[in-house]
Structures are given as structure tokens and as C-alpha cells.
Design brief:
By secondary structure, the protein is mainly alpha-helical. The chain is 53% helix and 0% strand.
Length: 81
């Protein structure tokens, strides 16, 4: 991300960073046991639960809503008293 961040806008970079929990949740479903085998340890994987799925869905939905293209609003005519 450090290499490509200057190529995207600040909003897009922030949205990419907010998906980090989704990727982390996906990794912990299989990586702990896989890495535990390398060190001869017993590390259980996380289980796929409803709160994990709902949290991931909400994060992805928030990112989609933030990227939604809206019509630009007209500027105000004058200062608001």
C-alpha cells in the first residue's frame, strides 16, 4: 500500500484501509493452525460465526455506500444568516 497509495485519492485509500478487518478475519480462519504446524504448536483457527459474518458484511456495505456516486449539490446562493 505504501507504493500505490499516492496513485489513489485520500478517500479511496481510507476505504481500502478500512477493509483490513475483513481480510484479517479471513486470514484467522486458516492461518493459525497452518503456522502452528511450523513451530510444533497447537493454535486453533477461529470459527466462522454469525457476528464475524455480520461484521464483515457491514464493513463491506459501508465501503460500497461511501463509493456510491451522487449528483453534486449546488452551492448555496449566499451566506446563511
Amino acid at each position: 500500500m505504501n507504493i500505490w497509495q499516492p496513485q489513489v485519492s485520500a478517500i479511496e485509500a481510507g476505504l481500502i484501509y478500512t477493509t483490513e478487518p475483513v481480510f484479517t478475519a479471513a486470514y484467522v480462519l486458516f492461518l493459525p493452525a497452518l503456522l502452528g504446524a511450523f513451530i510444533a504448536g497447537s493454535y486453533p483457527n477461529e470459527s466462522l460465526t454469525a457476528p464475524l459474518l455480520v461484521g464483515g458484511a457491514l464493513t463491506v456495505a459501508a465501503n460500497i455506500l461511501m463509493q456510491w456516486k451522487r449528483r453534486p449539490h449546488s452551492p448555496p446562493i449566499g451566506p446563511i444568516p
